[in-house]
Amino acid sequence: METFTAPMPPLEPKPHQGMPPLDQSGSPLSFFEFWPMWAFYPPVFVYVLWLMVRYRGVLLPTVANPSFPGGGFFGESKAEILDLAVTHAPDWVAPFVTIDRPDFGGNDQALASLTQAALAKLMQAGLSLPVVAKPDLGCRGAGVRLVRTEAALRDYLSAFPAGARLLLQRYVAFEGEAGVFYCRHPYERTGQVPSITLKYFPYVHGDGVRTLRELILADPRAGRLAHLYLPRHAARLDTVPAKDEPVRLAFAGSHSRGAIFRNGTDLVTPAMAARFDMIAKSIPEFYFGRFDIRFEDFARVQQGEGFTIVEANGAGAESTHIWDRKTNLLTAWADLMKQYRLLFQIGRANLDRGFKPLSIAEFRQWHRREKTLTPLYPSTD
């Protein structure tokens, strides 16, 4: 089978190029920013229990977006949701292909054949390396990698769990990334953008003297998250970056993987809100979720232009602006409670319109499947 080497777009834009200036004043982290889930979420969970009683439904979130599998609440297929978005808003969504990873029992020839089949599928879709590889099921950046070469693709396919599906998506080679939260009541004509999170990728800069390990440990923020960054860069920790050389510490725009989140809600413009409302309403029966976007210049995003959707999240999406280190704990809890109240209101309205949520048995099956697969995914860039 014919192989190919794609022309490589610029993979290393300047740090934070096209983003609003990164405010680094004050503490680099909030005191609760990296609390374990069991420590942070109990007040929100208690509030959700009350919402279940108030709106008379345990799994109303699974019907918040009737066109999404399970409303996009948990265990949903990224491919099915992105396919809806590509179908109805093709100009705004990064194209992708899906690959089902068979169990070939360590057979090198079968792995080589799968790699060539994946390359052929990319070519048929008009795509080429580099691409972003990610699992079809999963959240919080699990298993996300930038695949630049055929060898890297083969390694990713080899490490991916047998019987699971993955996506290969066009790489949007810009530094700018944001999460745009959207919601609309089914009986309302116009939706709103109540939250936007600006996602900055962490860097350290070489001084020509210290090793990468020393630079990470000396950085005010990275040094406190060394458990995230050191394993990821193990192969080069003892190398010395050149003077002023930027070294990016994380690729995935996920807070739990080390990306820096800032609250950009005050930067939302009417033009921006109108554009996301138009895109959301073009997707059938979509009312609640978050668009993860990449862009070259945030000023154009504010005009409602110049961005590409790389992921569309449903009812399980979170207003991630709460992970800005200037957000206090009570505000973070209050914002999440407001989000869940909207989610249950929308779910209740859709139930009243005749849509049916998942059963508890179905939800448990979906939950178990994702929880089983997530630890098996390749490490995240």
- What structural class do the secondary elements suggest? alpha+beta
Beta-strand percent range: 15-25%
Average pLDDT metric: 93
Fraction of residues in H or I helices = 25-40%
Number of strands: 11
Low-pLDDT segments, ≥5 res: 1-10
Strand order of the largest sheet: 9-6-5-10-11
Major beta sheet, specifics?
Answer: 5 strands, antiparallel
User: Between the first and last Cα atoms, what is the distance in angstroms?
Assistant: 29 Å
Q: Could you give the order of the helices and strands?
A: HHHEHEEHEEEEHHEEHEHEHH
Q: Radius of gyration, rounded?
A: 21 Å
Query: So how many helices?
Result: 11
The backbone outline, from C-alpha atoms, is globular
Reconstruct the topology from this structure.
Layout: H1 37-40, H2 42-54, H3 78-88, E1 96-100, H4 108-124, E2 131-135, E3 145-147, H5 150-159, E4 165-170, E5 176-183, E6 192-200, E7 203-205, H6 212-218, H7 226-232, E8 246-248, E9 260-263, H8 270-282, E10 288-295, H9 298-302, E11 307-313, H10 329-352, H11 360-373
Antiparallel strand pairs: 1-4, 2-3, 2-4, 5-6, 5-10, 6-9, 7-8, 10-11
Describe the fold and architecture.
The structure is a single chain. This protein is α+β, with helices and mostly antiparallel strands. It has helices spanning 37-40, 42-54, 78-88, 108-124, 150-159, 212-218, 226-232, 270-282, 298-302, 329-352, 360-373, and strands at 96-100, 131-135, 145-147, 165-170, 176-183, 192-200, 203-205, 246-248, 260-263, 288-295, 307-313. Helix content is 33%, strand content 16%. The strands form 3 sheets. A 5-stranded antiparallel β-sheet has the order 9-6-5-10-11. Strands 1-4-2-3 form a 4-stranded antiparallel β-sheet, covered by helices on one side. α2 (42-54) packs parallel to α10 (329-352) and α4 (108-124) packs across α5. The longest helix is centred in the last third of the chain and has 24 residues, at 329-352. The chain is globular and about 65 Å long. The two termini are 29 Å apart. The relative contact order is 0.20. Residues 1-10 have low confidence and may be disordered.
